[in-house]
Design goal:
single chain; 81 residues; alpha+beta; 5-stranded antiparallel beta sheet; globular
Length: 81
C-alpha cells in the first residue's frame, strides 16, 4: 500500500529540523511549546505520523494536531480540529 503523504511529511520534517530548534525560537515563532513531559500532562496523544501528533486536550477534550521536532524534542503549533 502506497502512502501518498510520505513525501510531503518527509519534506515537512526536513524543514522543521533544518532551522534552529531552541525552545525560545519555537515560542517566538509558534507560541506555546511543550517538552515531552509537559505534552503528556496537557494532552493525551492519540497517534502520530512525523512531524505531527494527533492529541486530545485533557482539560476540555478538544482534539487537534501538534507538530514536533526531533532534537531537542519539542512540540508546538497546536491546531484544534
Amino acid at each position: 500500500m502506497t502512502d501518498r503523504t510520505e513525501s510531503i511529511r518527509r519534506e515537512m520534517t526536513r524543514n522543521i529540523n533544518a532551522v534552529e530548534g531552541s525552545r525560545e525560537y519555537l515560542e517566538a515563532k509558534h507560541g506555546q511549546v511543550w517538552d515531552t513531559t509537559e505534552l503528556q500532562q496537557e494532552f493525551e496523544v492519540l497517534g502520530f505520523c512525523s512531524p505531527c501528533c494527533i492529541v486530545r486536550c485533557r482539560s476540555n477534550s478538544q482534539k487537534g494536531t501538534v507538530f514536533f521536532q526531533h532534537s531537542p524534542r519539542f512540540y508546538f503549533g497546536f491546531e484544534p480540529e
